[in-house]
Amino acid sequence: MASVREILDLMDSPSSEAIDLITRAYNFAAEAHQEHFRYSGEPYFVHLVETAKILAELGKGPITIAAGLLHDTIEDVCVTSKQIEERFGSEVLFLVEGVTKLGQLRYRGVERHIDSLRKLFIAMAEDIRVLIIKLADRLHNMRTLEHVPEAKRYRIALETLEIYAPLAYRLGMRKLTRELEDIAFSHVNPEKTDEIKRLVKQKNKENITNLQKFHKSLLKGLAAEGITNIHSDYRLKSLYSLFKKLERKENDIEKIYDLSALRVIVPSVADCYRILGVIHGAWRPLPGRIKDYIAFPKPNGYRGLHTTVFTGDGAVVEVQIRTKEMHREAEYGIASHLSYKQYALKRGQQSFSWLRMLLPSIVRFDRTPETLQKAENKTADAQAPRWVKELAEYHDQVENEEYMQHLKNDFFELRVFTFTPKGDVVDLPVESSPIDFAYAIHTDLGNHISGACVNGKFVALDTKLQNGDIVKIETKKSSRPNRKWLAFVKTGLAKKCIRSALDAEARSQSA
């Protein structure tokens, strides 16, 4: 059986206080679960250790890891809340109880269990670490899902695919997202999984051959420029991600250029752009396929340079260029470490408003062990992303059917990245209008919108925004929301603000 040392070895120089807390949680959980076994027949405690190891890999602190070890003690082995609080403190108890509440939600499909989803988002809004523990717990459960009875297996896989994998993606935890998606997809739709595997088997073989040839040429080209301090490897597109992209590309695999990619990891941002210049100097880039996510990061925090080039022998290759810091962020998201904080705050981009709200919770809660016992105001400190709070609050004002539509539009569907004239990113659902854009920035801006310019041209307010659009909002004090707007706005926030303004106007007229 795994030892506590395996968890500690994954942490970054834990102090004696951190080691003591995790060791005590490890021993307590081992004793509490000693008669508890999984479907596979292995001791249940193995699952708790694996959950804690995942949290340690994500860079979480001792309180979160301890809660990961203890997260099933209340629900499964009748340990009391008082026992946990007395031994490990109120903050660990808060997290354990939060995960316990999520474990009591029984999912039967996104369409049928709106109330369970609302409770999930409320729990997330109270403390985002609850979700991160739950994601670690779910990841290990998915790795051993074949031992679960078939009927239950399908439910867990569907819930993972429809809820937890999208949540991990929105938090930038791409490594978790890929594994959650692919395992869940293989259980939800095994026939389609096998079909895609067959489809890409030969294609990937060709792509790897092309990548290897290009890789050798690239290394020679970089060495000629004196660039040798790099790390490079290959990335193959995950099965579920490919499945979704094939749906958007009319099932034509020839239209997909990123089945595989060469990743180049370098020391600095300057090196990223220097290498991009070397590549474009030697190989012709494919038009429209140059993506600068360093200057304009994705709203979930992803940064890097992407380009697709013609190799000269009839093939095309995608290259992704990142620093080491960017690579770790791309794999583990904002749960991994704090180095993104200064960057996001310095750039001050609109799209990172939820990220800036989330980061303080990591700073305060995963602090040095010397201050572990000083945490008192846990829920106030653990700020969740704004979109999480909106999903939790929106349900109180609408019927279940509209809430489901709100979830689909604002959370589960594809997004478009638009820009203010200053270059700030505004993340919106597909088919959003300038009105959605205005409300995403500020309620007053939406309430007084009189017109909009997209890419320098005046457009109708029901125009559907596209990726990369630069949007300028015109306002007048006399402008007011119109009921007709409700027919074409996409975001729940816009609909909520429009209804609120219309109701206020009706009350003032009847007074």
TrEMBL record:
- Source organism of this protein record: Candidatus Taylorbacteria bacterium RIFCSPLOWO2_01_FULL_45_15b
Q: What is the lineage of its organism?
A: Bacteria, Candidatus Tayloriibacteriota
Which SMART domains does its entry note?
Answer: HDc, RelA_SpoT
Which GO BP terms apply?
guanosine tetraphosphate metabolic process
The record, for CDD domains, names:
HDc, NT_Rel-Spo_like, TGS_RSH
Q: Which Pfam families match?
A: HD_4, RelA_SpoT, TGS
> Would you say which domain of life the source belongs to?
Bacteria
Entry's family note = Belongs to the RelA/SpoT family.
Which Gene Ontology terms of cellular component type are present?
Answer: plasma membrane
Domain TGS per the UniProt entry, residue ranges: 412-475
Q: What is this protein called?
A: TGS domain-containing protein
* Residue ranges of every copy of the HD domain listed in the record: 44-142
InterPro entries linked to this entry: Beta-grasp_dom_sf, HD/PDEase_dom, HD_domain, NT_sf, RelA_SpoT, TGS, TGS-like, TGS_RelA/SpoT
